[in-house]
Specification:
Length: about 350
């Protein structure tokens, strides 16, 4: 697959590989996604807006340059923005691949990180030299203001230019809680939402704090995905129940939606509304209780997102699909092409 290097959410030539229930592989323009919907299906997307989660700054004890990438928080409460888990890189910027970025100065509890107008204290290390728990100094309003004025969206070395917030917000973006964009939702716009209704299918949303897709550090990437808070509205839980009663399918737009829905599912496959914390990996041993299909970006073997797709497909079919994506020049990463797996 080829890394998508241009920040266009809905390129005219975007491709879609469909793997249907009979394991047929079908190549179509991504704009034809809605043609695979049936009456009474329910499409569920993540309405999280993306935080400016990259903060350049200085490790105060040594005076050395660092970059902090916010990576997790305990809840979606907008007043609870003082504590985050974060990944810390040494000097450099997005032009250097994350796997080539140096480690930060040796971090220890009590260290102060100066991040523009913000000051954050290292509370503790979380089992890796790059991964820490941070406590920001100041009120919630001061932290929000500092993020807004100094933070940038997390950047990628394969992109031609730096990303701005408008590049990474989906058309349905709501509360700013995602650390990287829920990019499967880039396919959505008002025309697509109208087409979903025209196909007599439903549409609903959840809110999930989509986390980091990769850090470039193999040891750290093995810990991904981190725990991620989510919120399931009562209306979405009811829509899932009605979809089941009518014989429709639940189609998740993105891996973050799968994590939220399956995290909120009971053992007898009912969906609980309210807030929760998605924990652990979804993979080949996972029994999916809610989701019947996923519309996702293309993912490379070995990543946590690829592992999640193994809950939908046996390895032989997933390997065949990956070979097709490679052979036909599908683009990967946030602004790449898509797969639809039933």
């Amino acid at each position: 697959m080829i890394a998508a290097d241009t920040a266009v959410q809905r390129p005219m030539d975007a491709k879609l590989l469909v793997v249907d229930a009979q394991r047929n592989l079908i190549h179509v323009p991504r704009s034809e996604f809605v043609e695979f919907l049936q009456p009474n299906d329910l499409v569920i997307a993540n309405d999280a807006a993306t935080l400016p989660a990259s903060l350049a700054g200085m490790h105060q004890p040594t005076g050395r340059a660092i970059e902090v990438r916010l990576a997790g928080r305990p809840s979606l409460d907008s007043s609870d923005v003082n504590r985050f888990s974060a990944v810390v890189f040494g000097e450099g910027d997005f032009h250097v691949r994350t796997e080539d970025r140096p480690l930060p100065p040796a971090l220890k509890s009590g260290d102060t990180l100066v991040l523009g107008p913000l000051h954050a204290r290292v509370e503790k290390l979380l089992g890796h030299p790059r991964l820490v728990e941070l406590a920001f100094v100041g009120t919630a309003d001061e932290v929000w203001a500092g993020l807004a004025s100094h933070g940038r969206p997390i950047q990628y070395s394969h992109m031609q230019t730096s990303l701005e917030l408008w590049d990474v917000w989906t058309r349905i973006a709501g509360p700013p809680v995602a650390f990287e964009p829920p990019s499967a939702g880039f396919v959505l716009d008002w025309h697509v939402l109208s087409a979903i209704r025209e196909h007599q299918a439903g549409f609903a949303t959840i809110t999930h704090a989509a986390g980091l897709s990769s850090t470039g550090d193999e040891d750290l990437d093995r810990l991904l995905p981190f725990d991620e808070p989510y919120r399931i509205p009562v209306t979405t839980a009811k829509a899932v129940e009605q979809t089941r009663q009518r014989g429709g399918r639940v189609i998740a737009v993105g891996t973050s939606v799968v994590r939220a829905l399956e995290g909120a599912a009971t053992e007898d496959s009912h969906l609980r509304s309210g807030e929760g914390l998605a924990k652990g990996r979804i993979g080949p041993a996972t029994r999916l209780k809610v989701v019947d299909a996923i519309l996702s970006g293309t993912h490379e073997p070995g990543t946590s997102h690829y592992e999640l797709l193994r809950a939908f497909l046996e390895d032989s079919t997933l390997e065949r699909a990956t070979a097709e994506l490679d052979a036909r020049g599908y683009r990967t990463h946030e602004f790449g092409d898509s797969v639809l797996i039933f």
